[in-house]
Amino acid sequence: MARSRSRPRVRDTEVRSRKGRTSSSPGAPGQVRPWPQVHGLQKVQAPMPGWTMAPPRNVVKIAIQMRDAIPQLIQLDQAKPLAAVLKEVCDAWSLTHSERYALQFADGHRRYITENNRVEIKNGSILCLSTAPDLEAEQLLGGLQSDSREGRREALRRLVPLASDMTFAREVISRNGLQRLGTIIEDGDDLGEVLALSLRAFSELMEHGVVSWETLSIPFVRKVVCYVNMNLMDASVPPLALGLLESVTLSSPALGQLVKSEVPLDRLLVHLQVMNQQLQTKAMALLTALLQGASPVERKHMLDYLWQRNLRQFIYKNIIHSAAPMGDEMAHHLYVLQALMLGLLEPRMRTPLDPYSQEQREQLQVLRQAAFEVEGESSGAGLSADRRRSLCAREFRKLGFSNSNPAQDLERVPPGLLALDNMLYFSRNAPSAYSRFVLENSSREDKHECPFARGSIQLTVLLCELLRVGEPCSETAQDFSPMFFGQDQSFHELFCVGIQLLNKTWKEMRATQEDFDKVMQVVREQLARTLALKPTSLELFRTKVNALSYGEVLRLRQTERLHQEGTLAPPILELREKLKPELMGLIRQQRLLRLCEGTLFRKISSRRRQDKLWFCCLSPNHKLLQYGDMEEGASPPTLESLPEQLPVADMRALLTGKDCPHVREKGSGKQNKDLYELAFSISYDRGEEEAYLNFIAPSKREFYLWTDGLSALLGSPMGSEQTRLDLEQLLTMETKLRLLELENVPIPERPPPVPPPPTNFNFCYDCSIAEP
Length: 772
What we know:
The protein is of the alpha+beta class. 50% of the residues lie in helices and 11% in strands. The chain folds into 4 domains: 59-131, Ubiquitin-like (UB roll) (Roll), CATH 3.10.20; 134-327, Leucine-rich Repeat Variant (Alpha Horseshoe); 350-374 and 387-561, no CATH class; 580-728, PH-domain like, CATH 2.30.29. The two termini are 27 Å apart. Keywords: Apoptosis, Phagocytosis, SH3-binding.
């Protein structure tokens, strides 16, 4: 019987004949005869000629390695118990006591394979035979009690990579491994590699959640705090200690308060200023954890103190603009810090204006006086109280409030008092822009005035939604805005840019009060698109958002709509390119038919009087242009009645606009400019001279149709605007018709790659054989 030289032994596989019978060995009926083994590799018996081999179910082809042994290539039956598989593997290597061994993935974290995760074994997986997790845990924990420092270090080096595996971690924890590691950490006899490995292993074991962080003792936490507060020679210890304290703070409120009281903010600032990315990331992680665990009042005090110590400037210069790329973890912590900063605005956003608050009423008067100070003083002097109240109500209306009593507008939450804060900030920090905005719009009488107060209230709501003010922090988000760390009062500064953008967009849209919601939708889109670009400074944000005009927004919307319809996907573009020649031929045919129908033109005299008519058309065989004069109101003439003819073969070129001889060297008045846009001429040979047939089209559409038709006769491309529009319309219709059957089917941008051929073709399966 022929044998394959490259196929490993297949276990528990039945070879079936065409009648479905099992080929059995001389042993028990129905058993599969084992094939011989050569050099540790198990050989696969090739099927007899005329036989077929059914693909086994729940069987994967894998390799198993062991140190100082030739690897085994086997087919693993996933339905067989793992203990039985281990027994066969150990027998192949003549190993006894298979219960002392376990299988691990050879790559990655070298996780132990159990009945729960064995489904992750795929074809081509490489496994290794190693010591069982219970024996490995017992051996390593024994090494931790060694009197030799080198012995403890070696045990920890082997423990750390295995600690991330749940199976191994349970064995270590069940044997009091956490207590042994905690003792090493608390003793602190070795502040170098042994301590670093102990902290890493302890953290990895705790991350599995088998033991709660709240069970940690206060002396243990204080000892880890000491490693954060002291200056250690080993740079690997502080990041590990900071990471452990972050987990403690996030998981246990009581121990988090202990960490907050024991770790000064100044110490975290010292760690942040060290040019070590890992240390900076862990220090920022503990800082955000402490801020999240603090009350709103404590959080405000902490952030104010950190800002006084120039944390914002340091983050902006040395972390955001660092030469080294920022890691995902640091980006997440900066996002959390930004969210906590913006969260300080939530109380003002949730608080409506109190009409009985003297302070808030005075703030409204300050806002009014900043806009109408001169007018108010001159017109309000010597007026009665009623007259003065009426004047104030009118000025509040001019300021853009919907009600004469502005308190009614600011009772809405959100934005509540945050909108008033923004308007006051704008009036105080940009007084000229504020006055110009209000006076420019309050003096307009054409219903196109942009309401400052109403726009400010809605813009504040819009900014709170875009920046997610008051929303809880995501556990994975990284989308922070670098410009928020570029300067103080970033939210109010962003409002100042936004309110001026609102006025600019309002004028571009020529909006009225009825268009207020439409304008706010455009402003929202402008701000959202610019924020998505993550500008690094407010000035860059201002430049980019002002460049995003209303016209540009419309263009982007159109482009995105086409993308959503799939018309700009590479396969669709390729289809459109293939359709273009056919459709251009259709347009050419339509243009020539239009020339055959003919058109009535007016003659232009030397005094620019359009008092004569003439008719021109193309002959049905497309060889002659026939034309002649006709009277106004007469029916279209027949071809035989047209006296003049111009052979197409004699035509040399098509001229348009100012190049035409009948409009050249004329004045530049408005009437002449209109004629330029409708004028075209045909130059042709008349004997030895060059002559011209001049036209003035009755409309722009006729101009396009005739110039396209004449270009087609001359063999030139049809480049008119009408041709472009017609081609786009035909392409869109034809593409949609071609794709009707693919509705709601995603079209990939690239065709799927053709897989490489198999290394051999030693497989055959007869699908006509029915399984018993």
